[in-house]
């Protein structure tokens, strides 16, 4: 998928790459190293972002992260299942070591109302009891509806509710970009 | 009182006038036109009063579904002036008391002649013969015997019934259904019954009984009438028997001329009937057989049921459809509008011949001067979607609800008495 | 309104349901077997016919999705006291339930209820008509057997399945004969001739191959053999053969098992060991019978989720209706 007409690019591929690298360093710094770290991406794009972060953490630390990254589907825990067309869940993949007593970093593309993260915390609680849960988001566009904040943010992007913020990733969309467009368009 | 019908297409032919005086048709040129009630019948078809050799009026015993009085209202609305009432009442019409009761209820109701059919076997149980001679000699003068709803399956019983009937100049009307081949059967047997998981009623279960009965009728020298022929196979058997000279007549129900088993896909029990709706090929064969005379008549098999008998799973629901009100429209659609039959043919199949089979006098010279004034005026150009309010009987289990049918019966005279005027039942003795 | 009344559905929809069942299947590995998706929803299991295993499977599926599940059985209730099917359905609907799972001895009863009660209806087996969730779980178990962990998104293209037993009276056979071909499988119906559907080979939607000889089918080395429960007491001696006759012609005996190669074995249960199949066959590593039971819960979770999670479901489930 390519960028739509009328959309303004706020982050390009290089900026996205640098943001992820910075987040990887911040995660290690906050955790005082790589011990017990587990990354769980929230489908769809959060899963790919988690994988990219895992690759960077592996590069930085020299430790393999392949068995410390997974996916956490939140569909069953959403609070808007009734009001919207039936959502198809995506697979949840929990690393073999599990989440008990781990430091779980949830990874999502855009942090907005906070409702997805609320659902993710519930879904995670059904899987086990992590020691700490952190949140990383590529973009924080504000307008929170719940008392939730991100620990690691690629870019704060103040936006109007009427605007659409779209994250495009190479793995899904064929290119990396963050765009914003007027809702009226 | 004289009534003049002007410009009616008599039996679908050239427009001419008809005159009714008393209970007979008279020469329209010989009447005093100034004193006659004149009805403009231009554009309308004049037919003789229709005769239904096969209707279930449910009384006694099934009054929640129909009574003789409500049944003749449905009959009048459909253009019928004579209805043969089937014997499967409760108690069964196997004694003079029951047939005389039905006969009397018919006289009280007016609107149409009600001719009770007598049971062939006691209680329709298929075990011993009813007292056919007593029924024939009763005040109800039974001329048609039938266990309809059940097949007279025992070959010996059927043979003896035919022998009695021959002596009484009566006819045995057989519901042809081999019970062993139709255990649990609720729809036509074929790929669709396999798909829907419903018990199948194979065509052969009808044709095999008709073949046997034709031979028994030949042996007894009796008249055999086959109720509601539903399959192409049975048509072949009847055709062969007629060619051999067997005294066999056959009827087809309107629904078997128009509807097919595909309607059962909905599992809507309105489409559950016995014999069941069959295939397109059967419908075509039945239409051709009616057109060429292999099948002699159309009879409604009007079978009213209270709603609860139909608002249930298909296998559990009752068999049957109401049909008096819609029969002529269905025949118009299936036979006339397809070019298979003209209106004179309709008059034969729905009036003259059924009256002849049932030995009902007054129908042998349709619409001729001097004949009994059983007259129907039909607007063939009208079309309407069938709604529950069009049904004048007590039950609404019609397979045609929501379906557009052609033709509208506007006026009916039964022995000179007006029973339907502008589509409305005439309940009072208007003008007499 | 969405219902699951038949296993006849487009290929994409079938694969979608099986994939959804894969997602649900993950819960089997968890300590906490509970998803909140149907919290606040009430599902009634309306069983006019006894079936402990199917009812339990639906009950677990509903409960694992956090729905409130009520069981209403035909026996002893007003249903057996002459209340009409329609009145029973309307009464249950009037209690404010969100979905009804129906098992009935009457073919088409779930379809009628669906028309009458204005609630999503799941057919849990109707007469000799269909049993769509059974066919879905059979497909699910078979797909896992063939594709293993990579089953998601896959169909059953080219997989040759023989269904053996009383085909004519089997809702399981009927639903599988609709679903499996939609997924690309080649289905052969095998059984004593009186127990094969009439005219199975012509224009019916059940127009899959029918073959009276099990031995001939075994010689063709099918990929899977589904053995149906046989009830020989049904019209014994007229329609159904004797047990000895059945075993001679249609039982998966040890001898036939040896000739069968590595075909997967399926059975909807409950099994008559020694009649439909030998104990050795039932307990062999070719048998997927217990996996079918596990799959039943996952598939029924997928169905309940699809029908009940959203007030605005996007499309009909089970194409033909």
Automatic annotation (TrEMBL), chain B:
Any single GO BP term: 'de novo' UMP biosynthetic process
PROSITE patterns assigned: DIHYDROOROTASE_1, DIHYDROOROTASE_2
EC class name: hydrolase
Amino acids binding substrate: 56-58, 88, 274, 305, 319-320
Pathway recorded for this protein: Pyrimidine metabolism; UMP biosynthesis via de novo pathway; (S)-dihydroorotate from bicarbonate: step 3/3
Record Gene3D superfamilies: Metal-dependent hydrolases (3.20.20.140), Urease, subunit C, domain 1 (2.30.40.10)
Reactions accelerated catalytically: (S)-dihydroorotate + H2O = N-carbamoyl-L-aspartate + H(+)
CDD domains xrefs: DHOase_IIa
Binding site for Zn(2+) 1: 54, 56, 148, 301
Catalytic residue list: 301
Keywords: Hydrolase, Metal-binding, Pyrimidine biosynthesis, Zinc
A cellular component term, taken from the record's GO annotations: cytoplasm
One matching Pfam family: DHOase
Binding site for Zn(2+) 2: 148, 175, 228
Dihydroorotase catalytic domain sequence ranges: 45-233
E.C. designation(s): 3.5.2.3
Cofactor, how bound (note): Binds 2 Zn(2+) ions per subunit.
Molecular functions per Gene Ontology: allantoinase activity; dihydroorotase activity; zinc ion binding
Cofactor(s) recorded in Swiss-Prot or TrEMBL: Zn(2+)
Family: Belongs to the metallo-dependent hydrolases superfamily. DHOase family. Class I DHOase subfamily.
HAMAP family referenced in this protein's UniProt entry, alphabetically: PyrC_classI_B
Function: Catalyzes the reversible cyclization of carbamoyl aspartate to dihydroorotate.
The name this protein goes by in its record: Dihydroorotase
From TrEMBL, chain C:
Family annotation (SUPFAM superfamilies): Aspartate/ornithine carbamoyltransferase
Pathway: Pyrimidine metabolism; UMP biosynthesis via de novo pathway; (S)-dihydroorotate from bicarbonate: step 2/3
GO MF annotation, one: aspartate carbamoyltransferase activity
Keyword Protein transport attached: no
Record-level GO BP terms: 'de novo' pyrimidine nucleobase biosynthetic process; 'de novo' UMP biosynthetic process; amino acid metabolic process
EC numbers for this chain: 2.1.3.2
UniProt-listed Gene3D superfamilies: Aspartate/ornithine carbamoyltransferase
Binding residues annotated for L-aspartate, in chain numbering: 81, 171, 229
Superkingdom classification of source: Bacteria
Pfam families: OTCace (PF00185), OTCace_N (PF02729)
GO cellular component assignments: cytosol
Residues annotated as domain Aspartate/ornithine carbamoyltransferase carbamoyl-P binding: 3-143
NCBIfam families recorded: asp_carb_tr, PRK00856.1
Role description: Catalyzes the condensation of carbamoyl phosphate and aspartate to form carbamoyl aspartate and inorganic phosphate, the committed step in the de novo pyrimidine nucleotide biosynthesis pathway.
Name the UniProt record assigns to this protein: Aspartate carbamoyltransferase
Organism: Agrococcus pavilionensis RW1
